[in-house]
Amino acid sequence: MPFCFHKCHYCDFYSLVDTRDRQGPFIRRLTNELSALASLAGPVKSIFVGGGTPSLLAPTLWQDLLRALGERFDLGEIRAGRGEFTVECNPETVTPELMDTLAAGGVNRVSVGAQSFNPAHLKTLERWHDPANVGRAIEMARAAGIRRQSVDLIYAIPGQTLAEWRDDLRQALALGTEHVSAYALTYEPGTAMTARLARDEFERADEDVEADMFEETLRVLRGAGLDRYEVSNFARAGAECDHNLGYWRHEDWLAAGPAASAHVGGARWKNAPRLDDYLDFSDEGFAPVVDLETPDPKRALIEAIMTGLRLREGVDLSRVRERAEELRPGAGERLLAKAQSLAGEGLLVFAHNEAAHALERVGYVSLTDRGFLVADGVIRRLVGVLGV
Ligand code: SF4
Questions:
Q1: Closest CA relative to residue 119, chosen from 149, 173, 162, 159
Q2: Which residue's CA is the nearest one to ligand 1's atom 7?
Q3: Which of 26, 46, 89, 168 could share a disulfide with 55, CB 3.0–4.6 Å?
């Protein structure tokens, strides 16, 4: 959903400021794309509508989109409550009417972009919403019968103290959410935030403060029963985002809309990133694809290690060893030796215990809390021995 009502200064997602006049043509085009994609899909396990700001779309257009999804795809799992249907919401644009519309169309989870509850830090990020509206948005979702809610937060904002970050975490928990995504602020090329940093308008957060904030996140959220299941994602047991787990486990997914990317059978492709190109290409069928990558076993192996290690469940070492060995004899053994040495340093842990047996995850290896702090370095060292 490519529309936002204002561009946040840290954002490098594709989105454009909404002028309302293009919402209708966009939904017509999207609906036609969904018709073309439907022939590729089996029963749907999960849907995630992200953006942009999906909650900016007019409720009548949401009705058209939800009807189209229901008519073209098998949403039986979602309607039975076993599947997941998430919509990202900006707290400022949520209304009871919108929440009722979403719930009637099968949406059972909303992800609310709070980022911070501190007005000064929201201003630094150029986020335009009243922090009190986060709670209101969650209440509206609950009143409409949308059972699951997640709150997005950002830390390491310039000028933010550890105590202020702790307060943000506590305010999110006070809303009764069972899922929190907590991201360290990053300075992506081409964003207004990065330009302001280059002009010395502020100082970026100190690395030690950022590490303290990460540790505080673990402490506060775990204390409330939300454990980390991915580097930046925390949930009560059973409240994890199934859709995102699918990405990280390299399952197959289809994608629709400008800049959306899909992954099927090891192949990946990305739709044209700009709304104009997406609308102009053709009003029928598939969207224009700008990047198509055919299956590449080397890249798939490296990605399986990289994304697997971002998860608490870790990566199936016996499986990746086999794949490494097929690509280059000796690579599997080197991988095992390196994993053992990283475990000796307290950065990785092997799953041998009863819980791992029960979950059929014996042979998995995952990052320790200390390993998570230096995740990129650990992954680099592990991937570096493959020689593929
Ligand atoms: S609302 Fe989200 S997608 Fe839109 S500009 Fe802000 S961060 Fe980017």
A1: 159
A2: 11
A3: 89
Per DSSP, the chain holds a count of helices (H) and strands (E) of 17, 15
Please report which confidence band the pLDDT of residue 166 belongs to, taking 50, 70 and 90 as the band edges: very high
Helix (H, G, I), strand (E, B) or coil at 346: coil
Cα 280 to chain centroid distance, Å, stands at 29
Ligand 1 pocket list (CB less than 6 A): 4, 7-8, 11, 13, 15, 51-53, 90, 113
Contacts for 303 with CB less than 8 Å, ≥ 6 apart? 250
Domain ranges of the chain: 3-248, 313-384
Q: Please give the Cα distance from 341 to 309 (Å, whole number).
A: 16
pLDDT in tens, 268-321: 999 999 999 999 887 779 999 999 999 899 999 999 999 999 998 899 998 899
Residues in the chain: 388
Q: How far is CA 58 from the centre of its chain?
A: 24
- Retrieve residue 250's tokens: 């390299």
Number of neighbours of residue 381 by Cβ within 10 angstroms: 16
Choose one of 1, 3, 4 to mutate for the ligand 1 pocket test, by most ligand atoms within 8 angstroms of C-beta.
4
The H-or-E segment that residue 23 falls in is: helix 23-38
Q: What is the pLDDT of residues 321-341, one digit of tens each?
A: 999 999 999 999 999 999 999
Count the Cβ atoms, other than its own, within 10 Å of residue 353.
11
CATH class name, domain 3-248: alpha beta
